[in-house]
Amino acid sequence: MKKLSILLNGIIKENPVLVLILGICPALAVSTQAENAVGMGLATTFVLLGSNIAISLMRKIIPNKVRIPCYIVLIAGFTTLVQMVVQAYAYSLYQALGIFLPLIAVNCIVFARAEMFANKNGLTDSALDAIGMGTGFTLALFLLASIREVFGAGTWFGIELPVLFNNKIEAFSIAPGGFVVFGLLIAIVNKISKGKAVKRQELNCKGCPSAVACGKLPVKEESV
């Protein structure tokens, strides 16, 4: 049950986009088309899985003082790998995702899971956490993109929808529409969870992997 909880945690209770409010830039930027959103979600999941596994395996040999640079190198390596694969085998998706594909390397979701989970847990749990968080990220992007594409373009995965195609609401395809849909999805998740999707203490500086770096926490509270 503990491992199942780890796997499901990122889907609703700690959904990285709709609860923890992380990775908003790529979520809003690529969510005009469902196909692009799924592609971004899968690419991010791959980087999450690879980096979590690598960091979990190396957590006891990486010196604490240089762990952040080591994380960055590992995450950048997996990001470069997925970028090369997408460019080689899905070039249209590579063009559609643009700069947001290589920017997975600095996605705060990936870095947060490395620092807050993979750095403290074993291989299996870290892999399950990556899959759960990646799935939650993908589902959030898929829902956001589906709503925006259906009402903003009158299509879904590029397929024209009767009636809707000739009655597009173009506001959904631009930034303001994206923020409106994003806010509505957050409200729905909050309603379903009755406002308890994430514990209050998880929203303070102590729960942030960058708290020490930005000076919000003293060095003595930095996790080992």
Q: How would you describe what is shown here?
A:
The chain has 224 residues and is mostly helical. The chain has one domain (14-221). Helices cover 57% and strands 2% of the residues. The protein is built from eight helices and two strands; from the N terminus they run αααααααββα. A two-stranded antiparallel ribbon has the order 1-2. α1 (2-9) runs parallel beside α7 (123-152) and α3 (34-58) packs parallel to α6. The longest helix has 30 residues, at 123-152. The model is unreliable at 219-224 (pLDDT under 50).
Parts with pLDDT < 50 across at least 5 consecutive residues? 219-224
Number of strands: 2
Order of helices and strands: HHHHHHHEEH
Largest sheet: 2 strands, antiparallel
What count of structural domains? Answer: 1
Lateral strand order in the biggest sheet:
1-2
Percent in strands: under 5%
Alpha-beta classification: mainly alpha
Ends distance: 27 Å
Query: Helicity range of the residues?
Result: 55-70%
Shape: globular
How many helices in DSSP terms? 8
Radius of gyration from the alpha-carbon trace, in angstroms: 18 Å
Describe the secondary-structure layout.
Layout (H helix, E strand, L loop, with lengths): L1 H8 L14 H6 L4 H25 L8 H23 L1 H7 L10 H11 L4 H30 L2 E2 L2 E2 L14 H18 L32
Antiparallel strand pairs: 1-2
